[in-house]
Amino acid sequence: MNNETRTYIVTGAAGGIGGATARRLLAKGANVLGVDISARRLEALQANCAELPGKLEVCRADLSSEEAAQGVVEKCLAVFGELHGIANVAGGMVDIEADSMDRPLAQIGLDYFRRTFALNVDTAFLMAKHAEPHFEAKGYGKIVNVASLAAFANRHELGDTAYNPAKAAVVGLTQTLSLLLGRKGIRVNAIAPGLVMSDKVQETFGKAYVDRHLAATALGKLARVEDEAEAIAFLLEPQSDAISGEVLRVAAGVR
User: Fold this and answer.
1) What is the signed CA dihedral for 72, 75, 76, 82, rounded to 10 degrees?
2) Which of 3, 99, 131, 251 has an alpha carbon within 20 to 30 A of 220's alpha carbon?
3) In a domain, 50, yes or no
4) 1 in a domain, yes or no?
5) CA pair distance 146, 65, nearest whole angstrom
6) Alpha-carbon distance 86 to 124, whole Å?
């Protein structure tokens, strides 16, 4: 298996971590189906990855829809004839703004709460569900979910009453699937970023916000999207085949 061209689906592929993950996998010659809800950003991803040795196909889809998730898996198999792993990067806070963090409970509507779970948990669940038959048939597959440090503790300015429980659910989903699917040859792991240095973070929240998080790191710097992508790639690639059910914190030493 180590010598064949690997094929992956990356969801949220037009965002910061998702885009960096797609680039990292393509740089090693993999086939990647990049999935995102934004056609415009997918076009930018294609342009950005045009010179990389791997083959990129893109697909616009809302993965909170079961039909869409099933269609994405089917498209990957139709285009590439194979699927080795999925990076479930799609997620985040809904309609994020400068004052999104730690918003009062009274401002958390049920619709927003459910949309946050749909974006973070439903998408990962549905992709795993529809990839399982293919993975089981070949006796091999890898799923990497993206959780957050916000899943583990009360942390100021890292989420809200909808986002933090959703990311905790991603951890629970990861651990449950690893046990349920492991004897079928399917490995399921997750990464847990803290605040990730990206253009969007700096533009949305400003320098003072970034500096407060920077002060809490053990390394004196924040993780970058490329750091998160490297961790995801490690968990997708063959060198991590003995690992399942783990959550890897990629957060510059923040516990």
Assistant:
1) 130
2) 99
3) yes
4) no
5) 19
6) 9
